[in-house]
Amino acid sequence: MKLKNIFLGALALSMVSGVALAGALDEPDNMAPFFTDTGMKTMKSEADFKAAWASTAKDKQDSMMKECQDAAMSKPHAEFCASLMAYAGHK
């Protein structure tokens, strides 16, 4: 019985951790407006980036800014976060 509880606890923890790791910057729907290609390798021009940011919902903006200010979360998205900080500014 103890082994079963340990297993279920570990399973629950892994599920919660997995959800926590996927953030706003990992959502293709959130990121696509800022890139010119479907592979999201080439960012849009400054004007288009600002326009995409302006059309992004406030709650998504807040999530993206928060993740870009977190060193661990922003590392895989360093170029995007640098642009976001330069164009959108700090809150």
Low-confidence stretches: 16-20
Average residue pLDDT: 83
Global shape: elongated
Biggest pleated-sheet summary: none
Defining traits:
91 residues; mainly alpha
Describe this protein's structure:
The chain is mainly α and 91 residues long. The chain is built from six helices and no strands. It has helices at residues 2-21, 28-31, 46-54, 58-68, 71-74, 78-88. Helix 3 (46-54) crosses helix 6. The radius of gyration is 17 Å and the shape is elongated.
Layout: helices, strands, pairs:
Layout: H1 2-21, H2 28-31, H3 46-54, H4 58-68, H5 71-74, H6 78-88
Helix pairs in contact: 3-6
Keywords: Signal
Signal peptide: 1-22
Could you give a short description of this structure?
With 91 residues, the protein is mostly helical.
